[in-house]
Write a structure and sequence with these properties.
The protein is mainly alpha-helical. The chain is built from two helices and no strands. It starts with 9 loop residues before the first helix and ends in a 16-residue tail after the last helix. The relative contact order is 0.12.
């Protein structure tokens, strides 16, 4: 990975994370390399989580007509 992780978009981080998971799922990765992939995956997961948190904060602000922060949660439709 040559790109700075802080500069990755959510989609780029997810794509790299998915690639690491695919490599680990093969079961043919040496232990040392698997640990390295796992650590890299945890860093990418943290980046994705932070980006989602930022988007949620932005949505809270957008959804509130008065410009004040209010709790925002996505509700699933009941079947």
């Amino acid at each position: 990975m040559t790109e700075n992780k802080e500069e990755l978009s959510f989609e780029e981080a997810m794509e790299q994370l998915e690639g690491l998971v695919e490599k680990l799922e093969t079961g043919e990765v040496p232990l040392e390399k698997a640990i390295q992939y796992y650590q890299e995956g945890m860093k990418l997961s943290k980046i994705c989580n932070e980006k989602l948190g930022n988007v949620e904060k932005q949505m809270q602000q957008i959804m509130n007509e008065h410009g004040e922060f209010e709790p925002f949660s996505i509700q699933e439709e009941e079947s």
